[in-house]
Amino acid sequence: MEIYKLGCNWGKGKPSFYNYIKENKVVIGVSNKRYSIGDLILITEGFTVYAIVVVTSKWKTVTSMLDLKKDFEKYQINFE
Q1: Nearest-angstrom CA–CA distance, 56 and 70
Q2: Helix (H, G, I), strand (E, B) or coil at 43
Q3: Residue 14 carries which DSSP code?
Q4: Which residues contact 53 (CB under 8 A, 6 or more apart)?
Q5: Chain centre distance of CA 80
Q6: Which of 64, 68, 78, 62 is nearest to 14 (CA)?
Q7: Strands 48-54 and 3-7
Q8: Facing residues of 48 across strands?
Q9: What's phi and psi for 51, nearest 5 deg?
């Protein structure tokens, strides 16, 4: 088991996507951090922890889910 931190706004002045990931029950990662089932992820904004989640399924590449692209653009998250 590993423990990771996921910030909910990637860059100064960019919108928070906390409610988006909460409602859609997704965790957004980066290619050099491949979460495994059972890993813990702290969902944060700055120094505030909003949630602690447990990874329950194998990760999928975001580019395989084109229906997410519009929302990623809205929250200024790199889709690639």
Answers
A1: 25
A2: strand
A3: P
A4: 27, 40, 41, 43
A5: 14
A6: 78
A7: unpaired
A8: 45
A9: -160, 160
Query: Binning pLDDT at 50, 70 and 90, where does residue 52 land?
Result: very high
Asked if 27 and 21 count as a contact pair (C-beta separation under 8 A), the reply is yes
Q: How many residues does the chain have?
A: 80
Joined tokens for residue 23: 């409602």
pLDDT confidence of 38, banded at 50, 70, 90? very high
- Written as six digits, the tokens of 64 are 């395989």
In angstroms, the Cα distances linking 39 to 1, 2, 56 are 5, 5, 8
40-45 and 3-7 strand pairing: parallel
